[in-house]
Amino acid sequence: MKPSVGIRDVAQHAGVSNATVSNVLNRPDVVAPATRQRVLAAIEELGFVRNESARQLRAGRSRVIAYVVLDAANPFFTDVARGVEDAAREAGLALFLCNSASDDGREREYLELLHEQRVEGILITPVDAECAQIAERGTPVVLVDREATDGTRCSVAVDDVLGGELAVTHLIENGHTRIAMVGGPLSIQQVRDRREGAMRALTNAGLPADALTFLETKSLQVAEGRGAGERLVGLPASRRPTAAFCANDLLALGLLQSMTQQGLRVPDDLAVVGYDDIEFAAAAAVPLTSVRQPREQLGRTAAQLLLTENEPDHEHRHVKFQPELVVRASTAVKRRA
Amino acid sequence: MKPSVGIRDVAQHAGVSNATVSNVLNRPDVVAPATRQRVLAAIEELGFVRNESARQLRAGRSRVIAYVVLDAANPFFTDVARGVEDAAREAGLALFLCNSASDDGREREYLELLHEQRVEGILITPVDAECAQIAERGTPVVLVDREATDGTRCSVAVDDVLGGELAVTHLIENGHTRIAMVGGPLSIQQVRDRREGAMRALTNAGLPADALTFLETKSLQVAEGRGAGERLVGLPASRRPTAAFCANDLLALGLLQSMTQQGLRVPDDLAVVGYDDIEFAAAAAVPLTSVRQPREQLGRTAAQLLLTENEPDHEHRHVKFQPELVVRASTAVKRRA
DNA sequence: CTCAGGCGTTAAAACGTTTCAACATCGAGG
DNA sequence: CCTCGATGTTGAAACGTTTTAACGCCTGAG
């Protein structure tokens, strides 16, 4: 609609060459103050807006990075995204946020698109662990919340085995000897790792392996947590666990709701530990004990790592953060009085 | 790093001109099958990826739209975003998701950036209602969850007055005559509208205006809901409301938590109605009655409206959806038995 | 045998910027 | 007076596509 004012219109209006206008835009210090003012005035007057496409085409760079997220509706990922955004912003980069929604078709499409856009780099929490999909093709890629098994790229992750261990050790210290773990599917690396950590906690405490009852769920959603609650209550009282460790907070919230509805009390009848420590965990009716991951820092570090990819002597790094247990009411010890 | 294979490399490799390659990419039907195969093979072999910058520069179009969201961490907006994404995807457009985080500086920056990128259109839930900021400059803009007061652009909103009316009417029908409304700040249009609806419900039922106690909060976050809960319980029993209508679900969840902690029961001691019907509302310890907004449809419609902007005979439209009350346990009527 | 017309392909001109080498201009040092 | 370097500005060549008009070829009709 608009005749689209370009750099040469500005140049003509200011009585200089287009090269000078370009300099004002990109290296303001190199042009004489008087000229600069004149050019800026012309830009203002004509309402000129630089055309990024042309700039990119010529410069080869795009000033944009992307984060392909697994589930935009999960608070965990939105928090990670915030960390990414902050870091990107500090580096003067814009952030393209894409939601694969756990669908590897979508994921592939977005990667293709991003590559066509020639983004500077891609952060991704891939749908499948293999992530063979992510053809390198020259664009730097950093894995988020997944560990790169081969050394072909950087990754930022959290020690999930330790997280599981922390959670279950806490329960054992509170006197529990029959513990349920709720989570799944087992195809998810995180779930496997957290279970492994849980087993390790048992071993450390000298408890037998069958002290842990594993209830597998189909996904990590709230509804699955409710279902697990019903299964749990259905167990014969003699075998019923007195505590549950959930693979994420959504499951834990579902479990909590299920307990309340069935007239059982948390933590008295069942202690509950979640994972992720999302905001809603602290805000639950019974505030949830949870394993906190440094979400924002995860994103921030991933972005920073991505920025180092272009350095000549870059070596791929694998950063691993430590999770931390946040104790709240859902695992409070019974008063002895 | 990579020598970046271009369309002319492909052309040379396939023994055709670059125009033919371009045709294979954009109008496959116009080129002879045999040639097409040869070109496709060359593309595959060389690992060619079209350069969007160049394409855009030439074509003037970008195949990208953007949604500038007010708070990426609020489930309401992530659901709206999903609707936008679905519609965009169907139209073959990519979606640029930007988070203004209620900061009008960020919002401005993003708008500038998007304009430089020459996106096809912008969906935005603006930080301030005035939204004078959003200089038109040729890029179509559609307001989401806000009503455009002037006729300068399209908007998609939900009838918040009706929503408030539905919520409070429901409470009145359940026998409540002292009702609190929790929400704020009043600078937010939505909060004002929902309160207006609440008042209308009182009038319809022949109740006096002071049947509604308004508790203003500083934001719409969970913590504010907790604070409101404490203020509520602090009221003398004779004046204390028996029901509360919260301006959004986050407040309602906070309120719920506060009640539980103070030993009061929902809905027996206090009935609670939320707003937005986010997933966590149904998953709360006491499932929350809430006013549901057609979130995904909101986003979907906004995107579709945006697509019509370029049509020659386009007229700006203001779509307004009806909210719907979803009744759950938090307003269950006391059993009379 | 010629010619019209359809089909598939192509050469070349954009698109709006960045960049590089070259070019003035001017003051200072020899 | 000449040279030199510094400072500021510029012309023109890219960047990798899309697009338009023109082109050559072939077929079938006249």
TrEMBL record, chains A, B:
Domain HTH lacI-type: 5-59
One Pfam family here: Peripla_BP_3
Keyword Membrane: no
Key words, A-Z: DNA-binding, Transcription, Transcription regulation
Record keyword 4Fe-4S present: no
UniProt-listed InterPro entries: HTH_LacI, LacI/GalR-like_sensor, Lambda_DNA-bd_dom_sf, Peripla_BP_I
Sample GO molecular function, one term: transcription cis-regulatory region binding
Protein name in the entry: Transcriptional regulator, LacI family
Lineage: Bacteria, Bacillati, Actinomycetota, Actinomycetes, Pseudonocardiales
